[in-house]
Amino acid sequence: MAIYRLRSLAKLPFSVRTISSSSIIPSHLERVGFIGLGNMGSRMANNLIKTGYNVTVHDINLSVIKMFSDKGISVKGSPREVAEISDVVITMLPSPSHVLNVYTGPNGLLNGENPVKPWLFIDSSTIDPQTTRKISLAVSNCALIEKRDHCVTPVMLDAPVSGGVAAAEAGTLTFMVGGADEAYKAAKHLFSSMGKNAIYCGGAGTGSAAKICNNLAMAASMLGVSEAFVLGQSLGISATTLTKIFNSSTARCWSSDTYNPVPGVMDGVPSSRNYDGGFASALMAKDLNLALTSAKEIGLNSPLTSQATDV
């Protein structure tokens, strides 16, 4: 139902506010709430602030909240308080349980059965498609405090990202977006403020599905590249030489040419700073378990997923 109620959204005559000669923010996106200020979320929020959005933030980590408040950014004590003053809310959280709690918990974004202010919710967390669809349905069952022409209910986009911390910092993330096509088109300015690519995947949950598939492939390739480096160095070939070979032949991949796992081979990556600021192995294990669970639910045998999860 939310898709049909929203179908005129991309064509609505929203006004725009000029922030600078190179940045124009549509009025329907002007006030953004951002919840989840970890390695990725804090950098994404910073890029929205740099673009000129009116951003309000929330996180359970008080030290990171202080960092934002010290810069004059509005902070709130709960997801509900963020939603009360936002046109759009973006969430970037560690796991499905965190996302469910932020949306539907006692002080959650959806505020029980009461009408909500945000017309759009964007979840950039990496979670399973089933949880995404459950939350998307809950969002579509809410009413809006302020009706927006033909849009009478809020909508949700699942928009997980790829690119890592470096891309979040540089604003070059890739967004994989699921949900109503009209909402995706209406929110493009947000995505372009935080990334360089936004790829529409289909209906609710397809962005989440794309992300767990992407991370499955990346995990398997990183394990293979790492194993090859260990073998090659054990056989007397330096990691630098192996990297040159990989990156000029058939082994080339993101794990070899962008996020090399061997310390000292590539500048600016976690392996060259004692693995500080990288993607936590616990999160990759979580993502692999999401992929494995999804595969089992549809009866798909995924031996590499199982092996990577065990490792």
From TrEMBL:
Pfam families: NAD_binding_11, NAD_binding_2. Residues 205-309 form the 3-hydroxyisobutyrate dehydrogenase-like NAD-binding domain. Residues 31-202 form the 6-phosphogluconate dehydrogenase NADP-binding domain. Keywords: Branched-chain amino acid catabolism, Mitochondrion, NAD, Oxidoreductase, Transit peptide. Its main location: mitochondrion. It is found in: Mitochondrion. It catalyses: 3-hydroxy-2-methylpropanoate + NAD(+) = 2-methyl-3-oxopropanoate + NADH + H(+). One of its GO terms (biological process) is L-valine catabolic process. Belongs to the HIBADH-related family. 3-hydroxyisobutyrate dehydrogenase subfamily. NCBIfam families: HIBADH (TIGR01692). Its EC number is 1.1.1.31. This is 3-hydroxyisobutyrate dehydrogenase. GO terms for molecular function: 3-hydroxyisobutyrate dehydrogenase activity; NAD binding; NADP binding. Pathway: Amino-acid degradation; L-valine degradation. The active site is at K211. It comes from Mikania micrantha. It comes from the Eukaryota. SUPFAM superfamilies: 6-phosphogluconate dehydrogenase C-terminal domain-like, NAD(P)-binding Rossmann-fold domains. One of its GO terms (cellular component) is mitochondrion.
